Amino acid sequence: MMLQNGIQPGVVTYNSLINGLCRLENMEEAEKLLHEMKESGVTPNVVTYGTLMDGYFKTGKIEEAFNLWNDMSAGDLLPNRVCYNSVINGLCKLGKMDEADRILTEMAEKGCIPDDITYGTLIDGYCRKGNIEQAFRLKNEMVRKGFPLRVETYNTLMKGLCKSGKSAAAKKLLVDMIERALIPDDVTYNTLIDGYCREGNMEEALIIHFEMLDKGFLPNVVTFSALINGLCKTRKIKGAKKLLAKMIDSGFSPDNKICFSLIEGIEIEGNMEKLLMLDGKMDNAGVLPNVVTYNTILNGLCKLGSIVEAKKFLPELLKRGFLPDNFTYGTLINCYCVSGNVDEAFKLRDEMLEKGIVPNIAIYNALINGLCKSGKIERATKLFNKLPRKGVTHNEITYNTLIDGYCKAGDMEKAFKLRDKMIRKGIMPSVITYSTLINGLCKLGSMQAARELFDDMLKIGLSPNYVTYITLIHGYMKEDNMEQVYKLHDELFGKGEIRNAAGKLITVEMESEDNQDSSQYSSADAYYASAHAR
After folding, report:
1. Which of 35, 179, 229, 422 could join 399 in a cystine, given CB atoms 3.0 to 4.6 angstroms apart?
2. Using H for helix, E for strand and C for coil, what is the string for 386-439?
3. Which of the given ranges, 27-36, 116-125, 462-471, has the highest pLDDT on average?
């Protein structure tokens, strides 16, 4: 309109318009205005670039933000503190802390003095990365330079400590805050409560909760969620349900996160009836469960071995207008496969197809695993071969599952052929793949081949885990080759990262004279099963 009336907008007008568009996250129009500025002979200034960069960072357009930064650095314009803070903030959000530090150094070299926002941003970045030491070094630097420490800075540091399992250290910061005449807010208290709840220290969590109430802060959804989660983790389900009732009485609606905590707590308690009752209580509490909530209940029922009850839940899902998804069916299919009822699992797969739900690779991995466990290796192979025609791509778990099936069937030739095919398809064998093959060779007494495969692992840079070692040790024990047993035992105990996990198991097994073959490999089989379930 201004141009149509013959009025040429100046840099201030353009900056105001660009700022408005950036606030509306309309970066496309903001960029058009930048081009219009240049074409009209109006030179963008540091405010123009700073506003646009901030807008790009906030809308996740990182590349565009850095392109502007580079344009600015290459020209005659010197970035101001706002520009530097914007770039440092963008780098911190990307986790590029070395780059952010470099910009901080450049900022000082160019005579632009950092402020408390600069330091606060960096402290937040380091806390997110888990580098609490560096975050505290910056906090101490702020104090030395006379910058004010804000409540937000303390909250950031406390959150970082709590995430690292150091809630007691975070509580000391609360004392430090008060000594500096800073007033903690609800975020401060909720951060500490959540930290102690995550650590299972409900006594301290409740002390902070009551202190929060004494200071005049009312609990909110975050407070209730943390406390309910903590009570569930410590198996205090009755207390969690009482707190849920208090939450509802206080006018808050529990969200699905709180429901997940209760479901997991009841699941740990192993109480199927309570798990089924929870659904009704969610309705009474005014919670609108989503498909993820129902999937979590189904998963809990399956873990408790209540597959019949879990399947009954499907019609309830449909009645409430929720369509089961791959996770819903996958949970039930995996449960049937683990229990050895492969035929029911395939009926569910067919039901999926009838409803227009395309099974993903996780579903087929569960089915192949079920067939292998049921000794139906040929049928598992046929299903494996059909997958590409169904548009489903094999992954590492698919290969490892069928390789394990061949090994358990004693068909090492097919197992190795599948390993080679895996490599040709660009999927590199993992420690699970090699451990499975070594296990198969050991069961057949082919110890030389097993040892050679073990050495091949090392050559390609794969570190054997304790299952690999135990499998080989068992194999050598069966051959009464104690020299190799003790050699591997000493090597295993030299690996600090797996020493504790394997110590008791390997000692007991070595001292036992009547270990049966099935028990010797139970730990390995459990490992493979958990890997396939993932």
Report:
1. 422
2. HHHHHCCCCCHHHHHHHHHHHHHCCCHHHHHHHHHHHHHCCCCCCHHHHHHHHH
3. 116-125
Mean pLDDT value across residues 443-454: 93
Are 349 and 333 spatial neighbours (Cβ–Cβ below 8 Å)?
yes
Q: Helix, strand or coil for residue 370? A: helix
Q: Count other C-beta atoms under 10 Å from residue 283's C-beta.
A: 12
Decide: helix, strand or coil at residue 36.
helix
How far is 516 from 478, CA to CA, in rounded Å? 10
Q: What's the rounded Cα separation, in Å, for the pair 3 and 410?
A: 83
Residue in the block written with tokens 């698919």: 398
Confidence of residue 83 (pLDDT cuts 50, 70, 90): confident
- Give the whole-angstrom CA distance, residue 281 versus residue 263: 12
List CB contacts of 210: < 8 A, sequence separation 6 or more: none
- Residues 116 and 148: beta-carbon distance below 8 Å: yes
Neighbours of 8 (CB within 10 A): 10
Residue 242 gets the label, from left (phi > 0), alpha (psi -120 to 50) or beta, of alpha
| Statement: residue 166 has pLDDT above 60 | yes
C-alpha dihedral (526, 528, 529, 532), degrees to nearest 10: 160
Look at residue 254 and tell me whether its pLDDT is greater than 80: no
pTM over 0.70: no
Q: pLDDT for 15-61, tens place per residue?
A: 889 889 888 888 888 888 888 888 888 888 888 888 888 888 888 88
- In single-letter form, the type of residue at position 291 comes to V
Which of 85, 81, 79, 165 has its CA nearest to residue 120? 85
Q: What is the pLDDT of residue 1?
A: 43
